[in-house]
Amino acid sequence: MHAYRTHNCSELGSSHVGDEARLSGWIHNKRDHGNLLFVDLRDHFGLTQIVSEQGSAAFKLLDGARKESVITVTGKVTARSAETINSSLSTGEIELVADTVEMQGPAEELPMPVFGEQEYPEDIRLRYRFLDLRREKVHANMMLRSKVITSLRNRMVGQGFTEFQTPILTASSPEGARDYLVPSRVHPGKFYALPQAPQMFKQMLMVAGFDRYFQIAPCFRDEDARADRSPGEFYQLDLEMSFVTQEDVFQALEPVLAGVFEEFADGRSVTPAGEFPRIPYKESMLKYGSDKPDLRNPIIIQDVSDHFKGSGFGLFDKITSSGGTVRAFVAPEAGKKSRKFFDEMNNWARGEGFAGLGYINMKEGAAGGPIAKNHGEEGTATLLADLGCGPDDGVFFAAGKEADAAKLAGVARTRTAEKLDLIDDNAFKFCWIVDYPMYEYDEELKKLDFSHNPFSMPQGELDALENKDPLDILAWQYDIVCNGVELSSGAIRNHRPDIMYKAFAIAGYTEAQVDSEFSGMINALKYGAPPHGGSAPGVDRIVMLLANEPNIREVVLFPMNQKAEDLMMSAPSGVSQKQLRELHIRVVEPPKEA
Known about the structure:
Blueprint: E1 20-32, E2 36-42, E3 47-53, H1 57-64, E4 70-79, E5 94-105, H2 122-127, H3 129-132, H4 136-158, E6 162-163, E7 181-183, E8 191-193, H5 199-207, E9 212-221, E10 232-242, H6 246-264, E11 269-270, E12 278-280, H7 281-288, E13 301-303, H8 314-321, E14 325-331, H9 339-351, E15 358-363, E16 366-368, H10 370-375, H11 377-387, E17 394-400, H12 402-419, E18 427-428, E19 430-434, E20 439-442, E21 447-450, H13 461-467, E22 477-482, E23 485-492, H14 497-506, H15 511-517, H16 519-525, E24 532-535, H17 539-546, H18 577-582
Parallel strand pairs: 3-5, 6-9, 11-18, 12-19
Antiparallel strand pairs: 1-2, 1-4, 2-3, 4-5, 7-8, 9-10, 10-24, 13-14, 14-17, 15-16, 15-17, 19-22, 20-21, 22-23, 23-24
């Protein structure tokens, strides 16, 4: 018999009754019934109930062992009585009557329990992550993550992509987020950077002629944490393709994402491959107030500015006459709510830093609220008809500069749908956001800058750059969004040096600056580069959605806390003076606050 186990803790069943078996695992839970002690033994695979009679050597050891101690149990498999069968367990028809028990790894008193699903403070969970990972739900999330990555990899290979690994130590980039820097010992005063993404390298692979590349790529960005973004590092399904249009990228990626979501949807519906809507950026900002729209939400925002221009309704008339915007959306059946609902929405908007959220509340076809009162009966009736407002609906209004009105309408749309329970929790709805503007005007710096990815091909290429207003130029850039979560950005790349120099010139770069700051890229493009494009869906976010977790921490094995600290490994930490001297570094502490 094997030293530790003949079976794992999910294998034994009625066909093994009468057999001698040996199991090893953790003491998950104990129940003392006087002359009988029941122990749930857990390993990676499942649970098996162990039974021991009082007076036996096995009973004495099991009774004294703390939960989460690791033991090996040898005994006979017996059938449970009909009334004690546990149908929720694969081993629920049997139990193992302990003959001998060997202690493999005794556990000290636990700082947090593993049995049950109690909530515990983040610092405790992260400091003892090895215990947290033993909990059923967290353990299942990590297994889901592994399966999702395997599925992604298999689907990419099936689509003709080849997996390559790109460098982790690379050069710092002046674009994008803040880099993590690594000092060079052999080149004093110089630093590597951890890659924010394999962007440059994957484009080099296309220049090198490899045609279809992918990898499950680690990426590093010195950014603050959010619910959908880990501090420090994350993983993405990185891909690039040669001789493709935007539509070719969509056709390659949709079956992979739809297939993975269908595989792990657990009964939830998924937008089929080939049916992901293409929504222009400008339309998305109008209808949803965001370029990350949650299409499970049926509420659509409309521009109603024309209803208030010259209307005599003081505030909205003034806003629209000075170039501002009024956005509105219908809240279905909200008129059946009390006025408190509308006032709370207005107070919430103010709490979010906005001036307020106007509203009309309908009661059996009669319009009430401050907007109806100020806009007049005739103007309100025309407005409501254009909005398609029903007799018991409500309407919310956001007014101001276009960007501000769009933002408020967008977040209010989401909050309203949540309050009215309009969002379908049993669906994954995908879409592409396309036609991003190539440039935007930076009000702070008083100059044009790239609005998205500077290495994207402008629509219209060189002719557009030379003959169009830069703010009217669209780029071959796209995001893929699922349930209001941006999974990735992508683009058809600018593969021509002449177009790249011109694109950067519009953003204020000289040719010398492009040659200096993006030398690897621009040099490669000068030696024959194919048209190419790609994308990089975030693995962590995919798993977060599939696991129905609100925080990305729940699907990452060893996450950092909100301060980018690894509490389990005590990182970041100080290093010795010897190490600093080898790296030619001196630490200068920031001044202490008085």
